[in-house]
Write a structure and sequence with these properties.
single chain; 263 residues; 3-stranded antiparallel beta sheet
Length: 263
Amino acid sequence: MHTAPSLAELQNNFMANVLHGDSAIESHIETNGLPASQRMQIYQHIVENTLTEALQTSYPALRLLVGDDFFDVAADRYMRQYPPISGNLQDYGVQFSELLANMEEAASLAYLPDTARLEWARQLSFLAADAEALEASETVFRLQYLGNSPMQMMLHPSVQLVRSSHPIFDIWHYCMQPSEQPLQLDAAGQSVLLWRDGVQIAMQTMDAPATAFLHAVLDGMEMHHAFGAVQAQGHADFDLSELLPFLVANQLVIDIHAIGAST
């Protein structure tokens, strides 16, 4: 006597069929004139199209860069290696850069994974929570008031920082706004700061010392330690006279407080 499969078993068998063509689910399908395999093909096509379209939405520049055929192959492989684990399609695609880094067909295209990282950072920036920025006068007051006390700077939740040994900002910009000037794929690497500006995603390349400081701040490092770490990396002339006004002007600083205190 065969025991009827549980709901969880049926769901797992259904997913195995959709993603890998496993036939275990077919014996539990009422055919009603249409073979079970053909009925499952309907769901396979729906899932494939839906997940591919989700990746196309999250990675428009990458799709333009590699072309539809390559992108569709990568999307199909991603679906089978990294099936969605969330009902929210905006979460789907987080590991696309990992897949590209391990694709044999992309071995000569070393810039693809970091380009994907930049596009996913745009997704995260767009979906991030909102927060009220400090006014310029308040920012200056807190810095002066805290002086040499240990302090922490909090940046807007939408702020993302992507560092690469490839010119990822130029690559993204060229894909989205083609130019007659040829794209220099072997140009110097770029670090890109991203944030949400209204309903748009703003991006700005950052130099090495600013990148190092922002990376430390985003990791939660105390500001004086972050400053010292940048100088220890060979940027002895680094100061905040240019970076801080930029952050404030773009409403990216939401808090500066003494360590162990909150405002």
